[in-house]
Design a protein that fits this description.
Strand order of the largest sheet: 3-2-5-8-7
Helix content: 25-40%
Number of strands: 8
Oligomer: single chain
Shape: globular
Order of helices and strands: EEEEHHEEEE
Structural class: alpha+beta
Largest sheet: 5 strands, antiparallel
Radius of gyration: 16 Å
Strand content: 25-35%
Length: about 120
């Protein structure tokens, strides 16, 4: 969780076990995995709260978002192991330290050619 991610502007940080993807809001993002997940929890909760007050979100969507929040909080508490995949079509992202990370080309399911360089860390 304390691994630093230098996330490129078009890079996705995917948590495979939750099928959850974090994209940077700005040009580049530098933060720890823990802080990226905690920020996603905060922003999802804020989204639910604001849209519930405004009446612009249905109960089914609220339930799904709250389930995602719960899943992310489980990861922050280290209750289960998880894998992150950093997919960057530009190839400018980095993980620090690289110990335990696996780097290699990723293949798109619909394509047969390498789509991007990616790194996974457990």
């Amino acid at each position: 969780l304390w691994r630093v991610v230098l996330q490129g502007p078009r890079a996705n940080l995917e948590i495979e076990e939750l099928e959850f993807v974090i994209r940077p809001k700005e040009r580049r993002r530098v933060d720890t995995v823990y802080n990226m997940i905690a920020s996603a929890v905060f922003h999802l909760g804020d989204h639910v709260q604001k849209n519930t007050r405004a009446g612009t979100i249905d109960e089914d969507e609220v339930t799904k978002i709250c389930a995602a929040i719960d899943g992310l909080n489980v990861l922050l508490d280290l209750e289960q192991p998880f894998t992150i995949v950093l997919e960057d079509p530009q190839g400018v992202s980095e993980l620090k330290p690289m110990d335990g990370a696996h780097v290699g080309p990723l293949l798109e399911a619909a394509e047969e050619e390498p789509a991007a360089e990616g790194a996974t860390a457990e």
